[in-house]
């Protein structure tokens, strides 16, 4: 029995086969890597994303009382003047009597006299004075009296307080904090956006309390119909009943309706929940001229969903914060290139640097930081880190931090020596024990590594100690530093047992190393070595073949091939690879790996120009019902010169191959049909592709005037929200030939202002012909607001003027006519406009 002797390294060390010796000659040689590198600093894994929550607009719907409710003033019992009766009591009695008779002038004179003296009647006098001011319409004066009357206990205090709260709400839009069972609820709704049902049993404003109760419940109340209807719609929205809510909001989104901005805002949120971002943008655009706060909130809701939406929102609003948002979304999902481009455009240098470093593009990070005028400590830290990893001169940034940040200067001066391989000099600048240990490790002073890191237990230090112990030939000591918490530690644990000849135990650890980790291929290779040394040759071969299958580009793949095909010492150049494959196939033709090797052999023959030999192998793979049969057909098609034969091969793969093979065959068939000019077949294949392929199919059908097919694909793409400039142009062509209303509706939302204007004008004309002039006007007004500069702009204005005239709205017609673009008028339009201006009244905004 023989054992496989391997030379192996630690961490990122190269594994290479040595020679086969007898069992008693087994030895393990550890080959050290030249350098254990500086640990890389990493920017944050995720950037802070401030998620914008939808606004709750219910508090803005709550209305103040339409009518004031209060406790009536009672007549003071007893006779008039009395010798022993205090003046204030007499004044209050007379004041109340005059008030009840409606003689407010005398009542005010009597009651006001009480305010000039200390009197227990004062709060009641203020209450009556407040009621008089309220009846006279002097609400601000009444507010002051009720506020004072509310401060001390008396028989009318509850009424005075509630009148104070009600007037405060009506005059100032808010309610002071209070403990009243009704008005505390109003305060919480307005100030805290919290909702609880009021207790209406012991309040003065009973009718209003019933309204607030209905408002909280979302129940429609006739005298407050608008606010309660919209509150109900908001609750429907919040409970996911979007269609019911949408119907209500659509009714209130009309220009003449109250709370229109609230309705438009929630319509935007509903559109967003229904993934109709185009409609959400339309509502946000409408809100810009009505309520900027609502518009900005809706834009934020849209933008935070996706990078593309954030960019579209920026293009609409020109607010650079949306560019930064796009960058943050891309960064947090790991698309650092996309994040970098957005951060650069947003001039967010800090985050751009993070993105570049995450990509490993230290030169870009350095360039960005070097060009920054004002730098803080973090800027200099990343500048030095970038200079180190980009292998750029460090003298200038070191000079800049020498006085300002001496600790950075000392550390990175040490790294500058480290980078040059002068680890001895680097030692004198490092204070951190781990960095000092790295220097000793690269100097191959492994005992010093263990001394410096004695008692230090962080993961990097433990790994360095373990590797040093292995280089010292002390696998048991190495294990004392290791846990099972990382792929590298699992690999080193397995390696330590491999050194001791404990192959079964080493395999247990190698198998725990995740295959998708940086140590997956190495652990698999050592598993094969251990299995071979245990005499389990077939199992070892399976391990080596798994390396070839899962890690074809890894340097270990060549070593696995050598292990499989004779344990050769050198990596395989193409010529040797061909010989070894042929030899292996000759010896084991029925091996499960034979199809893959045959395919590789055919590929080598094609590259060398021996197509006939390759064809034989590929046909054999197909006819032998190999798992690679359709992959072989694809390869055959790639070398087939006869276009008809090529088409037959590709079509078979397209129909019978797996999804990946079928997709490749479809792409090749499209190219082939394009070469031979078979547009019908090309379009049919493109229909089965992605959205851009479907668009291309639609264009082809339009070109060959298959309007039914073109229309069907167009409606499918419209329903999916597909957009592109070429798509819109083809849509117009299809519409002109089909008059499909759905296509016209989609064109009204085109990003091309000429196309969208043309579609809106066409829609307006259709609606006018259908007897819907007001709906037609909405499209024409839309053109005047959003499509200035379009070719049909002036035509739309004139069409709108005509509809206003037909509706006998001559002044509105005159005002709409003023929106005409004088710079693009034709002679005929100019004459027509001059005539209209003479006939129409002057536009005056009321």
UniProtKB/TrEMBL annotation:
TPR repeats lie at residues 487-520, 521-554. InterPro entries: CellSynth/LPSAsmb/PSIAsmb, TPR-like_helical_dom_sf, TPR_rpt. Keywords: Repeat, TPR repeat. Pfam families: TPR_16. This is Tetratricopeptide repeat protein. The keyword Transmembrane helix does not apply. SMART domains: TPR (SM00028). It comes from the Bacteria. The keyword Repeat applies.
């Amino acid at each position: 029995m023989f054992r496989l002797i391997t030379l192996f390294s630690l961490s990122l060390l190269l594994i290479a086969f040595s020679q086969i010796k007898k069992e008693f000659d087994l030895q393990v040689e550890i080959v050290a890597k030249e350098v254990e590198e500086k640990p890389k600093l990493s920017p944050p894994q995720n950037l802070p994303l401030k998620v914008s929550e939808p606004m709750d607009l219910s508090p803005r719907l709550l209305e103040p009382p339409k009518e004031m409710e209060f406790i009536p003033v009672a007549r003071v019992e007893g006779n008039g003047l009395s010798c022993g009766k205090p003046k204030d009591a007499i004044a209050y009695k007379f004041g109340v009597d005059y008030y009840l008779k409606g003689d407010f002038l005398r009542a005010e004179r009597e009651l006001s006299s009480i305010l000039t003296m200390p009197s227990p009647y004062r709060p009641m006098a203020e209450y009556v004075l407040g009621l008089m001011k309220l009846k006279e319409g002097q609400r601000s004066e009444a507010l002051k009296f009720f506020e004072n009357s509310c401060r001390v206990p008396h028989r009318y205090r509850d009424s005075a307080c509630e009148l104070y709260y009600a007037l405060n709400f009506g005059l100032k839009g808010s309610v002071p904090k209070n403990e009243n069972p009704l008005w505390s609820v109003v305060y919480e709704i307005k100030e805290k956006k919290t909702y609880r049902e009021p207790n209406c049993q012991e309040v003065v404003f009973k009718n209003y309390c019933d309204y607030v109760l209905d408002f909280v419940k979302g129940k429609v109340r006739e005298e407050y119909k608008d606010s309660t209807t919209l509150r109900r719609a908001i609750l429907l929205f919040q409970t996911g009943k979007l269609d019911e809510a949408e119907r209500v909001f659509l009714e209130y989104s009309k220009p003449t309706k109250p709370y229109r901005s609230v309705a438009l805002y929630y319509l935007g949120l509903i559109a967003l929940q229904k993934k109709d971002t185009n409609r959400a943008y339309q509502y946000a655009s409408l809100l810009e001229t009505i309520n900027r706060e609502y518009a900005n909130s809706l834009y934020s809701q849209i933008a935070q969903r996706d990078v593309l939406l954030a960019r579209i929102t920026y293009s609409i609003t020109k607010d650079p914060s949306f560019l930064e948002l796009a960058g943050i979304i891309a960064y947090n999902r790991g698309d650092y290139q996309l994040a970098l481009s957005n951060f650069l455009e947003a001039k967010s240098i800090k985050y751009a640097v993070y993105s570049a470093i995450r990509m490993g593009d230290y030169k870009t990070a350095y360039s960005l930081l070097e060009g920054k005028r004002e730098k803080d400590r973090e800027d200099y830290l990343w500048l030095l880190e970038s200079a180190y990893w980009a292998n750029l001169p460090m003298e200038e940034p070191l000079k800049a931090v020498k006085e300002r940040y001496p600790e950075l200067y000392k550390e990175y001066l040490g790294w500058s020596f480290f980078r040059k391989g002068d680890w001895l000099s680097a030692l004198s600048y490092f204070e951190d024990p781990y960095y000092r240990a790295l220097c000793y490790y690269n100097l191959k002073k492994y005992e010093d590594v263990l001394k410096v890191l004695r008692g230090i237990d962080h993961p990097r230090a433990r790994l360095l100690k373990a590797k040093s112990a292995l280089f010292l030939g002390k696998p048991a000591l190495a294990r004392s530093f290791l846990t099972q918490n990382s792929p590298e530690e699992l690999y080193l644990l397995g390696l330590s047992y491999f050194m001791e000849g404990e192959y079964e135990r080493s395999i247990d650890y190698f198998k725990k190393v995740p295959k998708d980790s940086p140590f997956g291929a190495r652990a698999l290779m050592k598993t094969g070595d251990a299995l071979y040394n245990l005499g389990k040759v077939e199992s070892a071969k399976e391990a080596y073949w798994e390396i070839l299958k899962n890690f074809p580009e890894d340097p270990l793949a060549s070593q696995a091939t050598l292990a499989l095909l004779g344990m050769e010492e050198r990596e395989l150049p193409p010529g040797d690879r061909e010989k070894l494959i042929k030899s292996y196939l000759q010896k084991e033709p029925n091996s499960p790996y034979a199809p893959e090797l045959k395919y590789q052999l055919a590929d080598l023959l094609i590259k060398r120009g021996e197509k006939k030999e390759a064809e034989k192998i590929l046909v054999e793979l197909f006819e032998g019902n190999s798992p690679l049969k359709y992959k072989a057909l694809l390869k055959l098609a790639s070398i087939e010169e006869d276009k008809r034969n090529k088409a037959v091969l590709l079509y078979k793969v397209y129909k019978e191959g797996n999804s990946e093979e079928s997709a490749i065959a479809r792409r090749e068939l499209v190219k082939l049909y394009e070469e031979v000019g078979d547009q019908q077949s090309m379009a049919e294949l493109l229909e089965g592709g992605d959205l851009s392929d479907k668009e291309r199919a639609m264009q082809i059908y339009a070109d060959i005037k298959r309007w039914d097919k073109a229309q069907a694909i167009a409606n499918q793409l419209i329903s999916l929200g597909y957009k592109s400039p070429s798509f819109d142009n083809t849509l117009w062509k299809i519409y002109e030939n089909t008059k499909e209303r759905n296509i016209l509706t989609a064109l009204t939302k085109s990003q091309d202002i000429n196309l969208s204007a043309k579609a809106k004008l066409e829609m307006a004309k259709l609606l006018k012909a259908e007897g819907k002039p007001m709906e037609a006007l909405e499209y024409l007004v839309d053109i005047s607001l959003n499509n200035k500069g379009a070719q049909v702009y002036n035509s739309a204005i004139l069409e709108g003027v005509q509809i206003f005239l037909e509706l006998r709205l001559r002044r509105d017609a005159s005002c709409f006519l003023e929106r005409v673009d004088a710079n693009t008028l034709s002679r005929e339009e100019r004459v027509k406009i001059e005539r209209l201006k003479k006939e129409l009244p002057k536009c005056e905004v009321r």
